[in-house]
Prior knowledge:
The protein has 264 residues and is of the alpha/beta class. The protein is 38% helix and 22% strand. The strands form two sheets. Strands 5-4-3-2-1-10-11-12 form an eight-stranded mixed sheet, sandwiched between helices. A four-stranded antiparallel sheet has the order 6-7-9-8, with helices on one face. Helix 3 (71-76) links the parallel strand 2 and strand 3 (84-87).
Amino acid sequence: MLSHLVEIEGDVERRFQAADRTFLFLDFDGTLAPIESDFTAPRLDPAVAETLDWLTARPSMVATIISGRAVEDLFSRIRLDRLIYAGNYGLEIFGRDVRFVEPMAAALRARVEHLSNDIALRLRPIAGASVEFKGLTATVHYRQADELDYAEIHASVRAAVGREGVLFRIIHGLKAIEILPRTDWHKGAAARWIIKHFGAENALTIYLGDDAADEEAFAALPEAVTIKVGDQPTRARYRLPDPAAVHEFLGWLGGLATPRVQRA
């Protein structure tokens, strides 16, 4: 184990050995895969996919990829059948015979599309800014925009969302602005729903994420092993520096879950 994992391993190993089931939640961009300037580019590294596939073969492991991406987009980048996929910040969930869409978000789908088109029109003159309509939410990407345009981008988004009254809220990501329906649902609520759906009286929950939306999950899961990826301020108990360290952690966790052969 490298030094950045030493602090985590004692807590996880003790609780893992006592648990009947483990719920593992992983963000995608910035957690499983590095952030890239082109938001369409990230794919799951084959070595990470192999580790996840090996890890989720354990019957006691329920693993969910929980992301701001639309659920179809998320699945297309991973394509592992034993996983649960929670897209649009947990507003839509599928996998392992589960299919859920948060009702209030579904009812606002047309309003999100209209808002996305409005913002896209206003940002058209700004090179490097784009709007991604994701069905239940929208993202304004500006990683490729000039820093001098950031203030105008933020002002345009705030003004457009403000015209919708209290229907939507904004989360500021890494050079991205997330627009979500204002509901009681978020990544933490989705994680709790999945835990309740699969049930276990004595379960361990582990949640890894890197951005502001994951902070809502950290707050909603006070008994979980929560791990912040990166160096931003956090409510999580522990930290890992980057996706490479996350992969190492997953390999270590898989080792815990592998039955050891005892000598006769």
